Amino acid sequence: MPFAGKLSGVQDDTAVNYLPASADSTRVAELQAAMPGGDTTDLILVYHRESGLTEADRASARSHVAKLADDYEFSGGQQPRAVDSKDGTTVMYGVSLSGMPDEEDQNKAVDDIREAVDAHPEGLSVDVGGSGGLGADANKVFETVDGTLMFATAGVVAVLLILTYRSPFLWLVPLVVVGAATVTAMAVVYGLSQAFDVTITGMSSAVMTVLVFGAGTDYALLLVARYREELRRHPRPYDAMVAAVRGCGPAVLASSGTVAAGLLCLLAADLSSSKGLGPVGAAGVVCALAAMMTLLPAILVLLGRRVFWPLIPAYGSTQSGRRNVFAAMGGSVSRRPVTFLVGGLVLLGVLALGTLNAPGDLKQEDTFTNKPESVSAMETLAEKYPEQGAQPLTIMAPTGSADAALSTVRSQEGIASAERGRSGAGWTEISAFAKDAPESSGEVRTIKQLRSALTDLDGGKALVGGASAEQIDLEKTNADDRKVVIPLVMLAVLLILIALLRSLVASAMLVGAVVAVWGAASGLGGLLFESAFGLEGIDPGLPLITFVFLVALGVDYGIFLMHRMREEAVKGASTPQAALTALHTTGGVIASAGLVLAATFAVLATMPMAMMLELGFIIAVGVLLDTFLVRTYLVTSASLLLNRWVWWPGKLFRRQSAQIATGPASADEPVTAERVG
Fold first, then answer.
1. DSSP secondary structure, 349-416, as one string
2. Which listed site, 79, 155, 187, 355, has its alpha carbon 20 to 30 Å from 120?
3. Burial of 546 (0-12, 13-18, 19+ CB in 10 A)
4. How far apart are CA 325 and CA 331, in angstroms?
């Protein structure tokens, strides 16, 4: 508990932690922090009156700036100048504050400045924007995420467990254990930050909380379902639990292993936030596994059978002979496996086409689902100052060639103005404004031209950074990371599946299925993000993060199903019989686990940030597709059609082939759900 409570203190949401490690814009941010006065807090004060500014309005603006000069240190000692809009309705002041190295101090300064400028004539609107304002608004979101997210997730899991178990007591046990796993994970992640300097951001901490609750509850559902089965076969709860852990332990271990291995592949990413998410998420999964395989069995054994009241599984009793819905589904699949397989694949393919309709990359002002003050400032600036950008570009030039760099910057066609700033540690800062709006195609072209023109200066090349340059670097880095991380994830998951199932065909089938689910879920997001949710773009890091999570988590349910199927086949059942038996016995628990995992990630969609909404939506939809379409129909129908070949080239394939060669008709005999019983 003491170490878990320290996790929030090591979270760092400064811009550099969301940037590529090797990008020019990252180097610019690091050099700015090393300048005299430290990293700057760049703000834009926007004063606007739709009917036109009055002299009282302008006097109020000047008094605010004068007070800022008394309270704060301006970067480079330069006084901000007033820039009027052409229609006379707006005036802006670009303010760059230094002397505040800590993110907490910077955010407090933004809050204090907003409070100070709140005193103004009636009818005048005053907004504090700029990168500093955006950062402060994002920080407020992350400050409220941890507690809100944990309580919301716990509430969702509690409701679903009550509905699943229909017991007044049993639901509390997994919930208490997953809570213990979450606290443990927070402590372990804090330890990682201290021992290995792992980057912890608000986003990675929030995702870890959801992951522990979702994955931990899934493992609990699988173990409790198997334990309930074994209690009917063993008189002592201890013996029943030993049999349950032996039975489902390999599947749970492989499941957690695929998630952890998939997440650790993010260490190969260049993007700092993605690289940090890997070990943070993996630590959460390992803690969930440890709690569900040790603490949960111990508590259940101590409580005995009575914890299942009123539906207590008595020794020697049998499960209800009533045919469940998954047996009915299995019967439908066994009669028309080709129809279900082709129809399901076509459906996934059609949904995947929705990616062609996806909006473009998300811009900074579209990051929030609820418009904060900093975004209002950016919108006003874009409307009232169409002749120049409202967001500065920051150029860091070697001090010996600073004059040449400034001259080169001013000579560029897309630059409206440029001024020299601070110098230190052999570098000089230049602040420039583009003529085009932030993140527009014109500004992107200007940044690329600047980088090309500033390459061959005496003393070394100058670096171009700032918020817009960071977005360009983010898009490129995310594209490069996908080429590296996605193949690694697929290979890691495939190797774990081969080790568990001892079959190349079954393993490749499961990996292919989850990739198809990712494509379908992403396509559905592409269709709905703009039309239904009003989002103006997709976060450039979304495809990679959702792929890692959906492939790693989606394979879980394939592991649960295929491991039980292999278990039945090893006992002597034919592959079709084993497939339908596995669906009949695990369908309910997989459905419950899928609903829980989808619901926990859907909680992310309630957070007031576009990235969180998009992440929660795609993973929740993907998990539901995987649970109720892929596992139930596609994997089962493919297994029926492949028959013994699903186990190729393992021993099970060779054994079933030998049985067919010696004559038992049952090995290839068509199987119905009624025959499975």
1. HHHHGGGGG---BPPGGGSBSS--HHHHHHHHHHHH-TTS-SS-EEEEEEGGGHHHHHHHHHHSTTEE
2. 79
3. buried
4. 10
Sequence length of the chain is: 677
619 burial level (CB within 10 Å; 0-12, 13-18, 19+): buried
Distance CA 121, CA 244 (A): 72
Amino acid identity of 180? A
Cα–Cα dist 65/91, whole Å: 12
Percent of the chain scoring above 70 in pLDDT: 95
Q: Is the CB of residue 546 less than 8 Å from the CB of residue 613? A: no
Asked if pLDDT for residue 621 goes beyond 60, the answer is yes
Give the span between the Cα atoms of 357 and 88, in whole angstroms: 40
Q: Which residue has the tokens 């803690």?
A: 287
Q: How far apart are CA 338 and CA 324, in angstroms?
A: 23
| Per-residue CA distances from 11 to 153, 189, 198, 464 (Å) | 21, 10, 10, 27
**Cα(583)–Cα(635) distance, integer angstroms:** 10
Average the pLDDT over 324-335 and give the result: 81
Under a CB-based contact definition with an 8 Å cutoff, are residues 432 and 418 in contact? yes
CA distances in angstroms from 222 to 127, 352, 586, listed in the order given: 53, 31, 8
Could you read off the pLDDT of 51-106 as tens digits, one per residue? 999 999 999 999 999 999 888 888 767 778 898 999 999 999 988 888 777 778 88
Which pair of structure tokens corresponds to residue 570? 């090893």
Encoded tokens for 65: 């700036």
What element of type H or E holds 340? helix 337-352
Is the peptide bond prior to 649 cis by the omega test (within 30 degrees of 0)? yes
- In whole angstroms, give the CA distance from residue 80 to residue 68: 10
* Residue 238 reports pLDDT greater than 50: yes
- For the record, the structure tokens of 565 come out as 């199927």
502: exposed, middle or buried (Cβ count in 10 Å: 0-12, 13-18, 19+):
middle
CA distances from 321 to 119, 318, 324, 674 (A): 74, 8, 9, 12
**Residue 229 token pair:** 């089965």
**Closest C-alpha to 103, from 8, 185, 188, 5:** 8
CA–CA separation, 370 and 136 (whole Å): 14
| Packed helices 103-116 and 55-71: angle between N→C axes, nearest 10 degrees | 150
The C-alpha atoms of residue 502 and residue 400 are separated, in whole angstroms, by 64
**Tens-place pLDDT, residues 157-208:** 888 888 888 888 899 999 999 999 999 999 999 999 999 988 888 888 888 9
**Cβ neighbours of residue 269 under 8 Å, at least 6 residues apart?**
275, 278, 481, 484, 485, 544
Q: How big, in percent rounded to 5, are the helix, strand and coil portions of the chain?
A: 70, 10, 20
- Pairwise CA distance, residues 672 & 296, whole Å: 37
Dihedral sign computed on CA atoms, order 187, 188, 194, 198: negative
For residue 192, the model assigns a pLDDT of 93
List of residues 6+ apart from 501 with CB closer than 8 A:
507, 562, 563, 566, 647, 650
What gap in Å lies between CA 355 and CA 375, rounded to an integer? 27
> What pLDDT is recorded for position 668?
45
The closest alpha carbon to 174, from 160, 186, 185, belongs to: 160
